[in-house]
Amino acid sequence: MTVYLAREAESPGLSEGELRDLLTSTFQALGPRRRVLMVPPDLTRHHSFAGRIAEVAWEHYGARLADVLPALGTHAPMTGDELARMFGRVPPGLFRVHRFREDVETLGRIPAAEVSELSEGRVAYDWPAQLHRLVARGGHDLVLGAGQVVPHEVAGMAGGAKLLLVGAGGREAIDRSHYLGAVFGMERIMGRAENPVRALFDRAWQRFAAHLPVVHVLTVVALGAGGRPELRGLFVGDGDDPATFARAAALSRKVNVTLLDAAPEKVVVFLDPAAYRSTWLGNKAIYRTRMAIADGGELVILAPGVRRFGEDAAIDALIRAHGYRPSAEVQALVERIPELRESLSAAAHLVHGSPEGRFTVTYCPGGLGREDVERAGFHHGDLAAMLRRYDPRALSDGWNQLPGGERIYYVSNPGLGLWAQRTRFEARGP
């Protein structure tokens, strides 16, 4: 187990030149490689700096960079324009598409008894460690997993083994890990590196995948002045080395978790249309702010790019059929309805998107009608009217006093953090 790099930076973060130099020297320290696979996140984490990391890897390895596999998980494939926007000069012919229902192998299974123990008895199934075939047996002598460590609704903190076991994992693994996190409780998991889902990933990696030539390149990105993403940490270590992820997670907890002493009655979140095309992705606006909003408060989501619910037709249909519901209701539906039982990640998503009756959600999408939004369990807001009322160009991240006297809390990019009432977050433990 080796930590190759652990660099932290105060605001305004590492510069472009510093990032390039640190990566180049680290790649040199990894020694000669003949066939390299890179697994970066997709466009939903375009602020992760993974695109630039991929460019530097291509510049360093040249023809030895054989494949780039964006960790799509259940997300839709990236278009050519999206690949160019995120990955710059990396040749388009290097990119492969991860199909989570078809392209994976099962390396082994964590027994049901262990999963039950981790979940405090909430689930009683085993869990498969699944990986895309390129990762599992693609003939590479280096797999670079370039992931952003940031608070996450399923794994507590994204990055590390989660990038590969979920982002490049299979349907069953995604379904069962997501449902485990949902029934255990998002508010017990988010922003914490130690939790049942992360423990599941760590056990699976050590037992079934530690032999793979994986090196993690982890970033920690904070929201800087004017909403500009700042690279506040860069960490590189072997795939079976816990210290690399732990160091990155500690920094993320410091710079990505915003604790509020007063609970906002109204939170307004903007979703970049280039990254958020569905409620499956856009509900980060709910996940990441739910612990901040006052009881009886309102969340307004400005979502000009959202035009569907799921990232594929099957999941979209399930969301339309059942809507976003409190956890207890979804668990009862799973027991009764085979289609949900066979798509547990969709069931988990229904839980993730529910305010649990504690606050209301006014969704303002660019491409979903009032009837669709209300059937899914949200209030519908007219996007044009709401953009006039809450103009992102005139708002600053944090508290805003509007001309008419209304006081709101504004979040320009929910993908870069977690917002919570201090007492609510700290009551959940360290």
Structural summary, described in words:
By secondary structure, this protein is an alpha/beta fold. It has two domains: 3-256, Rossmann fold (3-Layer(aba) Sandwich); 261-426, LarA, C-terminal domain (2-enoyl-CoA Hydratase, Chain A, domain 1). Helix content is 37%, strand content 22%. The protein has 19 helices and 18 strands. It has helices spanning 16-29, 50-61, 80-87, 112-118, 133-137, 161-165, 171-184, 186-189, 196-209, 242-256, 279-282, 284-287, 313-322, 327-336, 338-341, 344-352, 370-375, 383-389, 422-426, and strands at 3-8, 36-39, 65-68, 104-110, 127-132, 142-148, 151-152, 156-157, 214-223, 229-238, 257-260, 266-270, 298-303, 360-365, 379-380, 398-401, 407-411, 418-421. The strands form five sheets. A six-stranded mixed β-sheet has the order 1-10-9-6-2-3, sandwiched between helices. Strands 15-14-13-12-17-16 form a six-stranded mixed β-sheet. A two-stranded antiparallel ribbon has the order 4-5. Strand 2 (36-39), helix 2 (50-61) and strand 3 form a beta-alpha-beta unit. The model has no long low-confidence stretch (mean pLDDT 96).
